[in-house]
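User: Please go through the entry that follows and flag anything odd:
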Amino acid sequence: MNGRYLEFSKISKAFDGPSGSQMVVKDFELKVAEGEFVCLIGHSGCGKSTVLAMAAGLQSLTRGAIIVAGKEIVGAGPDRGVVFQSPSLFHWMTALDNVVIGVEQVHPHKSRNEREEIARHYLTLVGLGDSLGKKPPELSSGMRQRVGLARAFALTPRVLLLDEPFGMLDSLTRVELQEVLLTCWRQDRKTALMVTHDVDEALFLSDRVVMMTRGPEAKVGDTLHVPFERPRSRRAVMEDPRYYDLRERIIDFLETETVREVASEPGAAPIAEGSAVGALA
């Protein structure tokens, strides 16, 4: 197994603002092994989605390089399947056609029937085998996200990139879609990088949780290896005593980052010893 299948080599990203250029992400380094599922977690605005957008080729790098399977990426490409918080479907097309249009990009020489067969397979895998002919307005938000997942997997990408794909869903649908994602992922174990702000989601889905520092100049602050065997049972994970230790470690990291931000603000008052925040320092 290639331990550097997806590699971020000292990548940085600066944006121009009213007060000049600001470095949002600086010297971000991460190596993801082939077939590994990694969740990237951190506070809102720390640069998680920016990192993912650069990996998808949707944003340029200020400096550094992103390498997939030994080749530096330049721009977007079908070797990376992307699932966004909103699936961005064509509303005038059926669920089947929304997946077929992606399959056409990677299999231009296949017949229409062959492309449809690929699309049907993945739509059935995500639980939409009976909804192939429905258009997005006829589907619930959870069903639309299932179409987005099917489309990403149908591209047979080298790397799967997920940007908070369940962030806009209710808790019950979110849990259901997490199971659907794992069902698809288990088929051929795509190398996956997923942005989330949900600690429980990260621990259930991933092999490693990568924690980002608060911005500006955000980078990798800590990495947590998730020891639970696959395939996973949600109940077994939740009942494992290690689960709560791991959860606490991630929350402690995020709370410590909050303390650092407050302490670094100009004119910030000293953190009182014994206060809720002070107790974390």
User: Anything to note?
Assistant: The helical segments are 48-56, 95-106, 112-125, 141-154, 171-188, 199-205, 234-239, 241-264.
